[in-house]
Amino acid sequence: MGLVVACGARSGDAPPDDATETETETETDAGTETDTTEGVEVRLGSCKNPYILGYANKTLRGRLLGRGDVEGWCSSDGNDRGREDVYVITTPVDIDVVFLFREETDFPVTLRVDEGTCDPEAEAPAETEAVPNPGLDAVSRFCEAGVEAGAWRSFYARAGVEYYVTIDSPRGTDGRYGFDLLFGDPPIDACALHPSKVKQSPGGVFQWSNDFAPGQGRVDGPCAGPGPENMFEIEIEYPGYVEAEIKGDFVANFRSACGGASELECIAGNGVLVHYFDTPGTYYLVIDQVSHESAGNYSLQVRFQ
User: Fold this and answer.
1) β-pairing, 271-277 with 240-247?
2) Which of 176, 17, 145 is nearest to 79 (CA)?
3) Rg (Cα) of the chain, in Å, rounded?
4) d(CA 34, CA 49)
5) Rounded CA separation 44/249 (Å)
6) HSE of 210 in the Cβ direction (CA atoms, 13 Å)?
7) What pTM was computed for the model?
8) Number of Cβ atoms within 10 Å of the Cβ of 119
9) How far is CA 179 from CA 66, 105, 147, 167, 183, in A?
10) What is the mean pLDDT of each run of 10 residues along the chain (305 residues)?
11) Nearest to residue 296, comparing CAs of 274, 272, 269?
12) CA dist., res. 265 & res. 273, Å (int)
């Protein structure tokens, strides 16, 4: 992934010029860098003394060894009870933040993104309002265990909000990680596409329904929920309206790419999502579960005019 542009960012601004090239790599080594606050030694890279990152693409590397201080709500079987490194990201514009884990990552990473804090006492995120900006108010907004080398992940950042990004390790880990931090639209590999593709046709109808168990979703955006989702590829061949009727406690949005900044229209709950597509091409329809804690089901009917 080379130059990453903030396509569709709501501020209308692109990343700064210095975000178009990789900065000098940042090396971290847990346990060797410390800071003293009020007479107490606090490790640099810990939850209480995180690394502060600027708004520019960069590569970050670190070694994790020892006992951890922070466990997230997706922790199970000790998958994040080892040492962690914590980074703080704040963006001047609404934009997607993208991670690409490099081949040198030699343990299954637990990746967490928390809004406003990485306090280990923070409660698990409850069901939240889906529109607008389903920020989870100082609790984990993304948490996934077992992220391997070569994986893409992303989240949608709102301008001026502090996001704590934690790279956590299983208990007993002595391992190294590396990832590219990028700002802009993530590649489609960062989103999990549904195998069914929807093709525009005059008077055509596409129908689908699904049941979701509790869990964490991967697709993020200003109008998206934290739970699992279905993301359908839609091929638009001529200008026209597309209607998506949704039944169920879900959020639905049309977007032009994987990232949340590319959202075009959205709706929460039961209703009809309508958008006029004036340019042929590939677009996406996301049906997203509002809560990660409860099971849910939806039915979908897509109609073309």
Assistant:
1) antiparallel
2) 145
3) 20
4) 9
5) 42
6) 19
7) 0.83
8) 14
9) 21, 8, 11, 10, 13
10) 28 40 48 51 91 97 92 79 96 97 96 85 48 42 90 94 95 96 94 94 95 87 85 96 94 95 92 96 94 85 94
11) 269
12) 7
Token duo for residue 202: 């005059």
State how far the alpha carbon of 130 is from the alpha carbons of 127, 240, 252, 270, 289, in Å. 9, 28, 10, 13, 9
Can you tell me whether residue 189 is helix, strand or coil? Answer: helix
262: helix, strand or coil: helix
Question: How far apart are alpha carbons 51 and 139 in whole angstroms?
Answer: 19
Full DSSP string of 108-144:
-EEEEEEES---TTPPPP-----SS----SSSEEEEE
Nearest to 45 by CA among 166, 133, 205: 166
Name the one residue in this structure whose structure tokens are 């975000």. Answer: 19
Instruction: Identify the three-state secondary structure at position 163.
Output: strand
Helices (H) and strands (E) in the chain, counts: 0, 21
* Cα 165 to Cα 180: distance, rounded to the nearest angstrom: 13
- The owner of tokens 């955006």 is 221
